[in-house]
Amino acid sequence: MRGRLLSLMVATAVAWTIALNSGRTLAFNLAYLLTGVLVLSYLWAWSGTRFLEIRRYTRARRSQVGEYFEETLEVRNTGRLGKLWLELEDHSTLPHHQVSRVIHALRGRSRYRWQVRTLCQQRGYFRLGPMTLRSGDPLGLFTVQQELPATSQVVVYPATVDLNAFHPPIADLAGGEALSQRTPYLTTNVAGIREYRPGDSFNRIHWLSTARTGRLMAKEFELDPSGDVWLFLDLNRQVEVAQPWEPPPVEVGIFALRVRPGARGRSPGPRRRMPELPPSTTEYGVTAVASVARYFLGRNRAVGLVLYGGVRQVLQTDRGERQMRKVLEMLAGIQADGTLPLYQVLLTEGIRLSRNAIIVAVSPDPDPAWVRALREMRRRGVQSVAVVLDGGTFGQERDYDELLQELRWSEIPHDVVGYGDPLQEVLGRSTPAGGIGSVPPGAMASELMSGPDGSPP
Fold first, then answer.
1. Which of 59, 230, 245, 418 could form a disulfide with 393 if both were Cys (CB 3.0 to 4.6 A apart)?
2. C-beta of residue 192 within 8 angstroms of C-beta of residue 267
């Protein structure tokens, strides 16, 4: 393209030199022609990126690993003249989100729309935009581009799996006894009746007692007798095991259509597909924590989350779908960039937990110090469940024998998760306290099947 433009400019300069020196009409006509071609080509290319409106629509700015993120883009020509060709280049950071497109022959006062569906394979916060718009003239002499700096953000939540069970059963977890603690909040547990006090809401009034005594009587409530569930994910960079990984290319759905009033795109098809998780203990840990949170929140348990990455993040316990979204938001952007080992995190945060709490600790750390920290907190009435991420299956030699022995001796229910294991099956068959459940791969199996002195359990 540059060579063609340079040749034409040299020819134009030569034509003007000959015309001015010779004064011949033919030379002037040739010079005018070449000059006109240059000027008109540049104006054509310049106008190609003008009088355009570019819009992008998304169904939601949140998606999840295994689901499709859908986006619709529209290029509208507001001018009277058509556009020979347009190239729209998108600089989004969402992997394999192929929005860039070349549009041919966009007529005046018309618009072009296409839909893009991308399978989300990686959690995180991703940027949509900016974009670059290019156009040119029919002879290919000039290319003009315009930067469109507008950006937006999309959040891809980590994947979750459906757990049919998680050991120990809810009825066996701490917190099954009545707490007998009065609370000013409305709960499902009525502790007794007292006289009405100024400020009590009308829905606390017990009308039968009021009619019987002739005085306003109000109900008094207790805290929910079920204990809180606290999830601890180990984000210490020293114990993470991860292999290089790039999201594999997948078929991206691109549906283009000339838009008419009332026109619709094609059916989006299936919306959920569970991709393979990256070979990283952090990714498996994040998915395990999200799945366990979903399991307990689905059973109306109060769930909290503690993360010590680059900064301390603590999500206080709560119930319901809103709490699940908060958990996923926190897990979406975390990385294993912490410096504190898990046992220090447990000892630091454990002193704030009530004796009716339950800890679910997820870690690839083979050091049994964090198991001893869980055992220490059990003396205060805080029960625990451990999820061990077997770093040996992620490409690094590690010995978990001592850790597993400590778990058995401490009678802490635990799971062992290896690379490629289906989490919905592994997390559903936890090793009960003092028993044998899922057997980890390799040398750890023989350790689990023997007692501390090498004899059968």
1. 418
2. no
Q: What is the pLDDT of residues 34-79, one digit of tens each?
A: 999 999 999 999 999 999 999 999 988 999 999 999 999 999 999 9
Look-up: residue for tokens 């990283």? Answer: 280
The 10s digit of each residue's pLDDT in 326-369 is 999 999 999 999 999 999 999 999 988 987 789 999 999 999 99
Residue of 40, 44, 48 lying closest to 8 (CA atoms): 40
Query: Which H or E run contains 104?
Result: strand 101-106
Place of tokens 């026109």: 263
The dihedral sign for the CA sequence 261, 265, 266, 271: negative
Q: Which residue has the tokens 């757990």?
A: 163
Compute the distance between CA of residue 415 and CA of residue 425 in angstroms, rounded to an integer: 10
pLDDT tens-digit series, residues 111-140: 999 999 999 999 999 999 999 999 999 888
- Of the given ranges (1-10, 267-276, 309-318, 359-368), which has the lowest mean pLDDT? 267-276
Whether the Cβ atoms of residue 439 and residue 445 lie closer than 8 Å to each other: yes
Q: Which pLDDT does position 221 carry in this prediction? A: 66
Interior/surface letters 170-197, b for 16+ CB within 10 angstroms, e for the rest: beebbbeeebeeeeeeeeeeebeeeeee
Residue with tokens 């689901």: 67
Report the alpha-carbon distance of residue 47 to residue 67 in Å, rounded. 40
Determine the Cα–Cα distance for residues 308 and 304; give it in Å rounded to an integer: 14
The CA-CA-CA angle for residues 15, 42, 133, to 5°, reads 155
How large is the angle between the packed helices 369-378 and 401-410, nearest 10 degrees?
10
For β-strands 124-128 and 303-308, DSSP reports them as unpaired
Is the separation of the CB atoms in 81 and 45 below 8 Å? no
**Alpha carbons 400 and 407: distance in angstroms, whole number:** 11
